[in-house]
Amino acid sequence: MTAASARRLVEASTAAGAASAAGESTRRLTIANVWVAVIAFTVATAMAVMQAMSRANLDLPGRSPRMYYLSVTAHGVLMALVFTTFFIMALGWAVVRQDAGAMKWPRASWIAFWAAVAGVAMTTWAILTHRASVLYTFYPPLQAHPAFYIGLTIVVVASLEWAVSMVATWLELRRTKPEQPVSLAMHATTANAMLWMLCTLGVASEMIFQLIPWSLGWVKTIDPLLARTLFWYFGHPLVYFWILPAYTIWYTVLPRQAGGYLFSDRLGRMVFALFLVLSTPVGFHHQFQDPGISAGWKLFHTFNTMVISFPSLVTAFTICASLEVAGRLHGGKGLLGWIGTLPWGNPLVSCSLCAMLLFLVGGFGGSINAAYSLNSVVHNTAWVQGHFHLTVGSAAALTYMGAMYWMVPRLRGVSLQYRPLAQVQPYLWMLGMSFFSFPNHITGLMGLPRRVYDATYGGAPQAQMWSELTAISAAGGIIVFTSALCFVLSMGKTLLIKSDGIQREPLVWAEPLEGDAAGLTMWDRLGRWWVLAAVLVVIAYAIPLFDIFSMTRFGSPGFKPY
Amino acid sequence: MKVDLYEKIWMWGVGVMLALFFTSTAVAAVRDSLQPPSHVETIDPTRVMADARFRTPGVSVDAAGHVQVRIVGMTFAWLPADITVPAATPVTIRVTSMDVVHGFEIVRTDGQTMVLPGYVSQFTTTFDAGEYLITCNEYCGVGHHTMAAKLHAVPRAQWHAPAVAASTPTQILAQGGSHDRR
To answer: Which chain A residues contact residue B117 at CB under 8 A?
Structure first.
């Protein structure tokens, strides 16, 4: 062996060593993010059960309006902002590790992770010490402690490091293999990261230019309409940021776990590109009842909102078709025989299937919320909490849990602990959420406002009609709580135990029925769709924002009535 | 891009359904003026009680005979807390807030609007005769669930236009017009 070839060999092995060290670091970062998600979920679940008891009017010790509104805030922030974001980052890192070997910037990404953890700690401290009972929408002029806003801003900025890293990995994969599309999982993760980079602009502006200076007392007043507009510029794409990782699992993991193939890889790529384009210019459908925004722009956002149900309904077809393929491969016969032959005992499969069934209802409810004039009947009523516990609370959260049952054992080289609990958990969730959500939809139509500590209204006859249904939804909440405990026990032990001698396994994506995609299509060119998304955002928001700025406006001082 | 025939049919079906949804919404909005409250008007939230538009909350009839109700939202009450309007008559409701964001909701009707400090919300609706519960449907603080009011819609013949309202919000408060602050 010559000296030169020996040196080459050493260099090569060092490079491989470095790559695997970075890969190992990525694996650890994935697990670390799962840890934060599970802890946030656990605390938020405890908050939820308190609300369920309150809804049932059980006079438990420590029950008070102050505690109730604190718990609503903690539940919303820890579930909708912390649990989701950390799981989504975990999934992104797992995809990057699988497809590219390692994250691009380990040091920066670890710093961002710890910064995000510190941000969560700040915000949680403010909430739990009664300094921030402003709910997860934090509409001013309700004012929280500055730590609440600063903590959340740090989480958002840290998550942007994640998003930039996702896009950078995608660019590198595209550069190294220009003729070959990235995996659908990478495509979907990248679309979601791009969406996140576009929409967090709204909440970041609200935090940095309005809420933080105002909560610190640097400025005296704040414009609530501008704040709401910036919040919902972010707030609706946020729900797609939650749901796209669930779709990612349904497209790229579920078909294989169910024993079949993905029905159409190409349409999957179209779906994620369309979500990137359409998710943001829709925020006014959360502000239908707001003064100060003209009806014409609300109608424009309604139109965009309706178009965005197109990719969801395409997904419904593709996923059902993929499941049918799997069921028939398992020997299912006849028109519906394939349903029974699906592996209903596989926790990832059952979580996904229960999530989809609930999403079917939640999705149709959502198109009623977004339907411009119909919104006046349901806005801010119990209907809304019924709705989003089926969408983010089931379609997203339950799929995330399934994904963790699938992903964590493979990444840690352990078997799923307390597997029977994980097997029964999705069904309990579906049962509990049905009892919780359907009565909420009905009481919402009967006018019950959302988020009220006590819904008796001094014995008003209108309020008495709600009481039986609210009791049913409280019982549903207890069932969901039981399900959540099953998840926490199973996942907690799976995260804690030492490797039981099982090999770590790669994450294997579902194969498309039509064979691997060859050559790029227009849907692979995410950069262009991103530009189109930005253009649509400008069209949807430039004039309404200009209108707000050109009004004679009067700011509001802060209030802390909690 | 090759797309399966059934999936193509499905996608066209979805397209048609969405077109129908949107057409019905747009037709209702334009032809029947079925629109969410989208009034654009601002007010100084720190001086609501001094503002001529809200100095005397309550029901009044303008020169053209149009019934108008001015309501002020505050933690945790609507002023006035008891409102009587004629049934089967268009009533214009104008609401603003003295402090935080509130949600004005007349239970079991489609009459509702967000109430933002600094802005005046307005919508016009018609009531069937009966008694209605008004709630706050946007979280506004620890007494959010106690923020309520009553609205009575009485047959036109039994309804008398109030004399020019004499009481100021401060007087109404002093008379115990607000709700218990639990």
So the answer is: 141, 224, 556
Among A295, A317, A318, the residue with its CB nearest the CB of B38 is A295
From A27, A187, A389, A410, active-site residue: A389
**Binary contact (A72, B139; C-beta < 8 A):** yes
Could you tell me if A504 and A412 are in contact, meaning their C-beta atoms sit under 8 angstroms apart? yes
- Find the CB nearest B142 among A65, A379, A455: A65
* Given the residues A174, A405, A450, A487, the one annotated as active site: A450
Is A69 assigned a catalytic role? Answer: no
Question: Could you say which DSSP state residue B101 is in?
Answer: -
Global pTM exceeds 0.90: yes
Q: How many residues does chain A have?
A: 562
List of residues 6+ apart from A354 with CB closer than 8 A: A394, A398, A426, A427, A429, A430
A553 is catalytic: no
- Contact yes or no for A443/A436 (Cβ under 8 A): no
A548 touches chain B (CB under 8 A): no
Distance from CA of A447 to the nearest CA of B (A): 5
What ipTM, to 2 d.p.? 0.90
A427 burial (CB, 10 Å; 0-12 / 13-18 / 19+) is middle
3-class DSSP string for A31-78: HHHHHHHHHHHHHHHHHHHHHHHHHCCCCCCCCCHHHHHHHHHHHHHH
* Residue A283 distance to chain B (closest CA, Å): 15
| A window 212-251, beta carbon within 8 A of B | 223-225, 228
Please check whether residue B137 is in contact with residue A450, taking contact to mean a CB–CB distance below 8 angstroms.
Answer: yes
Partner B contacted by A450 (CB < 8 A): yes
What does the DSSP 8-state code read for residue A333? -
Cα(A211)–Cα(A204) distance, rounded to whole angstroms? Answer: 10
Indicate the helix (H) or strand (E) that contains B96: strand B90-97
CB of A134 within 8 A of CB of A73? Answer: yes
Plot region of B61 (φ>0 → left; ψ -120 to 50 → alpha; else → beta)? beta
- Cα separation values, A69 from A54, A387, A469, Å: 11, 20, 21
Q: Of A28, A328, A330, A451, which residue is the catalytic one?
A: A451
CA distances to A165, A300, A550, B26, B169 from A543, in Å: 33, 12, 10, 21, 37
Task: Tell if the CB–CB gap between A561 and B41 is shorter than 8 Å.
Answer: no
List average pLDDT for each run of 10 residues in chain A, which is 562 residues long. Answer: 52 54 94 98 93 75 88 96 97 96 95 98 97 96 97 97 98 92 96 97 96 97 97 96 97 96 93 95 94 93 92 94 94 92 96 96 91 91 95 96 97 95 97 96 94 90 90 93 97 91 88 80 94 95 94 95 94
Give the span between the Cα atoms of A463 and A513, in whole angstroms: 54
Q: Which of A87, A153, A155, A77 is nearest to A115 (CA)?
A: A155
Residue A240 annotated in active site:
yes
8 Å CB contact of A553 and B118:
yes
- Which residue on chain B is closest to A138 by alpha carbon? B139
So what's the pLDDT on residue B177? 39
Q: Name the amino acid, one letter, at A320.
A: C
Q: Is B91 left (phi over 0), alpha (psi -120 to 50) or beta?
A: beta
Read off φ and ψ for residue A222, nearest 5 degrees. Answer: -145, 150
CB A69 within 8 A of CB A51: no
